[in-house]
Amino acid sequence: MCLSEAKVRGVIIKNSKLLVISIVITLSSIFFDKFKDYSNFKHGLGLPFKFLEYYDYNIPKNNLKLLSLDNITKINFRVDMFLFSVLAIFVILKYFIKLYYKKEKR
After folding, report:
1. pLDDT in tens, 26-36
2. Where are the alpha helices (DSSP H) in 1-106?
3. Predicted model pTM
């Protein structure tokens, strides 16, 4: 294995760790985000884009109750918006890491 292959492998490992962190941050955002009302019946959750839609007139008082058996059938998980959210968080984290290392070198 030559030096460039090791460098590429290191970049891939760093990016995959950053991707996992981005996915965890995006999924955990549904637990501290507030419901956004699209109508009286449709509500959205997720940051930075609303990727989880809840269909009911009454929203749960606690976001953890979304995972109960009664509420799980009222949820629509939008994969496209989830991937956009993960990508946005990934790019923001990558930018802040690059900015941090640039300040470190000074």
Report:
1. 999 888 877 77
2. 3-32, 69-72, 79-105
3. 0.79
